[in-house]
Structures are given as C-alpha cells and as structure tokens.
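Recall that a protein's primary structure is simply its ordered list of amino acids. Everything else, from secondary elements to tertiary packing, is in principle encoded there. The following example makes that idea concrete.
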Amino acid sequence: MTTDAIAVHPPHDGAAPDAATTLPRPAPRDTPEQRRSTLSLRRTDMFAVLGAAAASLSLTWLFFARIAPFTGGLGFVVCAYLLFLALYALLVSFDEDGPAVRDRIASAVVHSLAVLLLVALAFVVVYTLWSGRKALGHLNFFTQDMRKAGPLDPLTVGGIRHAVIGTLIEISVALVLTVPVGLLCAVFLNDVPGRYARLVRTVVEAMTALPSIVAGLFIYATAILALGIDKSGFAASLAISVMMLPIIIRASDVVLRLVPGTLREASYALGSPRWRTVWHVVLPTARSGLTTAVILGTARGIGETSPVLLTAGYGAGTNYDPSHNPMVSLPLAAFELVKSPQPAMIARGFGAAAVLLVLVLLLFVIARLIGGRGPGELTRRGTHRKVVASNRDLRRFTERHAARAAAGQDFGPAPEAAARPPEYLEHPEQGPEQGVDGS
C-alpha cells in the first residue's frame, strides 16, 4: 500500500478478513479557498440605487422648473419618489428576472418607509429641543414654579418645577396601582387557562385601543362626580392607570407566553406548587421582558394629556399632596403654556416638552440597566455572594467529616477542596474578580 492512500480495514467478527479498501488522498490545494460573500448588498445594487435617485431628482426638477407648472415641496418629493421606484425597477430588470425585481422594489419601499419614520422622529426631537433651547438655558426654569411669573415676565422668572414634581408623583402612584394588577392578570391569563381567561384577554386587547379622552371622562364621571373626589393628582393617576393597565397586561402576556413550558413542567415535577413556580421560575425567566412591558406602560401614561386635563386641574404652584388641590404634569404644562401668544410662555412650553423627552429617555435607560440581564446571569456582587456561600458550605462539610472521622465513623473521603480555586478557599471574603493580593 502506498503512502498516498488510506487503508480501511473492516472489523473482524470471526469470518475471513476481506481485502483492505484504499481511498485516494485529496490533492493538496495550491491556493487558499476563497470565501464567498454572504452580504445581500452588492456593488451593482448601490449603483442602481444611486443612479435611480440622481435620475429621479433630475427629471423631477425638469418637470417642475421647465416643463409643467408644478410647485410645492411635497409634490416634488412625491414625484421624485415615484420616479425613483420606476427607474430603480428598470435598472434592476437589466440584471434580474421578474421575482427579483419585485423583491427589490418591495425592499426599497420598506427601507424608505423606515427612513421616513426615523426622519420624522428626529425632526420632532430636534424641533422640540431647538424651540425650547431659550428656556432650558436658565437654571430657574428647573428650580422655580409659575406662581410668581406672569405672561409678560422674561424667562429669568418662573419654571416647571411644579410640573416635574407632579409628573413624578402621578406616574409613581399609577405604577403602584397598575404594575401588581397588570402582572397578576398576565400570570392569570397564562397559568389559569379557561373561558374566563379568554374573555379577559379579549377585553384587554379591546382596551389597548381605548381613546385617552374616554379614560379621562370615565374617571371624571365615576371618581369626581359620583364619589366626590376633588380634581387632584390621585384622580389623574387613576386616569393614567386606565391607559397603562391594558398595555402592561398585553405586553406581559406576550412575554410570559415565551417562557418554555419545560421549565414549568420541571418545577411541577419537583413538587413545587403553582405559586412557587410562578414566583421562582416564570417571573425571573421573563424579568427582562416584563421590565420592557412596564416601560411601555410608563411611556404611554407619562405622556397623556387628555385624562390629566379632565382630572388633575391646573395650578401655578407646587403641590406635593396628590389627594388634594390641582397637580400639574409636564404634558399638561406644555399644553397650557404653548397656548399663550407670548414668546416667553411658548418657549417655556417647548422647554417642558423637552424635559419630558429627556425624562422618558432616562426611564428607558434605568429600566434597561435594571432588567436588561438575561435569566441566570448574575452581577459581580451576586457572583461574589455565590462564591462565599459555596466556600462556607464546603468548610462546614469538611468540619463535619473531620468530626465524624475523629469519632471513629467513616463516611467516605472528605469533600474535595480542589473543586474550587485555592484563592477562594484561603480568602473567601474576596470576590471572583479579586486575587489573593486583592488585585
């Protein structure tokens, strides 16, 4: 047998051995294998997009400026976009067949809609910040309320402290009311199936499209007119809770459905009751998604104006008591301030809207930091506590084994101390990121 062949011998089972089978070795490659590009965007696609865009802008300018008496920026954009799609389809058809052309056109439409939404969002944010830049540059805008400021006073007098405090109080009360109820309802919909659960899910899905003015009218009719509650922060929190509750329930329901059923089955197989399974298995597994559900509900409630307008009242001073007297929120303050014809009041209104945007962004960041870790992923402090507890258990087992060995009882070998790094055994007070010397 030559060295360029591989001998394969079948196993011997008592019969006569067969002849060895030889397989030729693969020929060595002179050049390395070239990797294929998996990118869906090619150079010809970029040329087609750029060429169609340039041609559509040129033709649209020609129609608007030289041929037809067209005017208006919106018409120019619409005509240019339609021409871009037609020219892009023509250029792609030179290299691709019919299904590929339709796929490229659909992709262009989807990407253009995404760009349009991003541009609209960026325009709203930039316009709000730019319009409120004059008010945001004054420190008193954040530390004073409007009790001593009039319509003709400059921006150096008055601020939105009362609106910021009112927003935080109202949304805190609303979260205290809605988060436990929303999570319990979502758990009920997933772990207690039945006809009543289907009815509740249908009602929740219908309430997600509830107009905000209807929620405000409902609380105004039931709490203020029927029960005699004054217009206050608590009444506004009730109206905000009506808007937040279906969002939290619906989003939490979707998240809890994603928890694998095998985790529940494993917990039930170990003898855990339903409440312990939900508390120790289901909710920790879906923690990040549940945090996102609370974020969505908070974002929906913190920007509501209509329910607060009907239930909270309006005042120029700071109110810390949500059960008495009117309490102003940032959306309501912005709504009332921009109605004034005075430039200073309009700047204060846009400043309040800018602060509301920043507040919502901070809430999103804090929520992501709290609930962004995946299930089973521990922090450094949590890992340190686990290491210290494991060392304590190992030390206890070793002492128990030594005591039994001294009493003449043999229960097998001592626990293996080598299962853990030696620096943890010698220095259990240190964390997993620290060495023996504390570095």
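The CA atoms of residues 37 and 391 lie 51 Å apart. The domain at 161-371 is CATH 1.10.3720.10 (MetI-like fold).
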